[in-house]
Design a protein that fits this description.
With 145 residues, the chain is mainly alpha-helical. It has a domain of 98 residues. The chain contains three helices and no strands. α1 packs antiparallel against α2. The longest helix is centred in the middle third of the chain and has 36 residues. The two termini are 31 Å apart.
Amino acid sequence: MATTTHHRRSANEKNIDELHADTHYWDEKFHFHSEEVSFLKSLLTAPVFKGNIPNMYEKLQEFYNELIDLKEEKMELHEAMRNHKNDLNGMMECEDISCETFYHSQHQKLAYRIQEHLDKFKQLKLEIYRFSTPLLKADNPENLS
């Protein structure tokens, strides 16, 4: 699998190929994001937690609901990203700087929204890990060695 280097340059400094590379990078991130959400939903509903912990199931349900909300947000962003990717082809027809600036501005706005979403997801994963790790049943820890 090819590795994409994600540049930290402003969208206004990027050419059309670099903007397309960004959308490819986002697409890969969203694909992996989907796999993580599926795993975390399975984890939160699996019978792998110790019993008799006050409010544990309510907290697990809260995490599950947050995952559902983030999954829906990701689907909306993924659709916006696909539309943006198609719109970038119109940038090749630009004849003036204001036209190019429009596409670059749209790219920057989408990049910000996607990064904000990925940051929220990263924070939720951290909360799930911190909450659930000490509550996992450990029938035979020697099996992990």
